[in-house]
Write a structure and sequence with these properties.
With 229 residues, this protein is an all-alpha fold. Helix content is 87%, strand content 0%.
Length: 229
């Protein structure tokens, strides 16, 4: 939003976002492990959660930050390349899981999931400064934006819970066969919506800029133009 509005350097917001992601990511990983260790007492479950939380909450959020910086600059091809790299590395890890001897385990997948993050995130974080320049950091600016960022976080968290709550119920109460059938069906439905999600994501920077320049009327004009194309 800040980058699309031209309110400051992309390098500054990139550095601020990385710093806040690192801080909140470490706290999030610690909180996830603490909750699981308290509520679940299965052997080794804390290690699985630690590996998955590190990759999802910490490493892959670095890719999100870099991608959204370029979305703000309306260089969507670069953000798409970062996400495609992440997905291709995950797909390769799925292939490794299939060729491993014996029955695949949750711990093996957690290890491979972390390995995909360890490979893809440094590539993205190395490539981004070469395009943008060295990230800068303003602690006061990061803390100021964090107050508004809480509302974005609540919205995204609520959407994630709404999308994934059914999987928690299935994993606990449904048979493995039912859960196995439901999962690919959900993925197919999600894939069918990808074009809509893509258009909305590509439009975010333009909407933020129009809202800053012309208020709600500017935003509505941009939305109407999209609906008529």
């Amino acid at each position: 939003m800040r980058i699309a509005r031209g309110e400051g350097s992309a390098r500054l917001y990139f550095g601020n976002a990385l710093a806040m992601t690192l801080l909140t990511g470490i706290l999030g990983v610690a909180l996830a492990v603490a909750i699981v260790s308290t509520l679940l007492h299965e052997p080794g479950i804390w290690l699985i959660v630690l590996l998955l939380a590190t990759s999802e909450i910490l490493l892959f959020k670095g890719i999100d930050v870099a991608a959204h910086v370029f979305f703000g600059l309306e260089k969507h091809h670069l953000g798409a390349m970062f996400y495609n790299l992440q997905l291709l590395v995950r797909l390769a890890c799925v292939g490794v899981l299939f060729v491993l001897p014996g029955e695949p385990t949750a711990l093996q997948w957690a290890q491979l999931h972390l390995a995909s993050g360890v490979f893809s995130t440094p590539v993205v974080l190395f490539a981004s400064p070469r395009i943008l320049g060295r990230p800068r950091l303003s602690l006061a600016g990061a803390l100021h934006d964090a107050r508004q960022g809480i509302f974005f976080s609540v919205h995204i968290s609520g959407r994630s819970v709404q999308n994934d709550a059914d999987k928690w119920v299935l994993a606990r109460h449904a048979s493995p066969a039912t859960a196995g059938i439901y999962t690919p069906a959900f993925r197919l439905a999600y894939m069918a919506c990808v074009p809509v999600f893509s258009v909305l994501l590509a439009l975010q920077a333009r909407l933020a800029r129009r809202r800053h320049q012309s208020g709600l009327h500017g935003t509505m004009r941009a939305v109407r133009a999209l609906a008529m194309t």
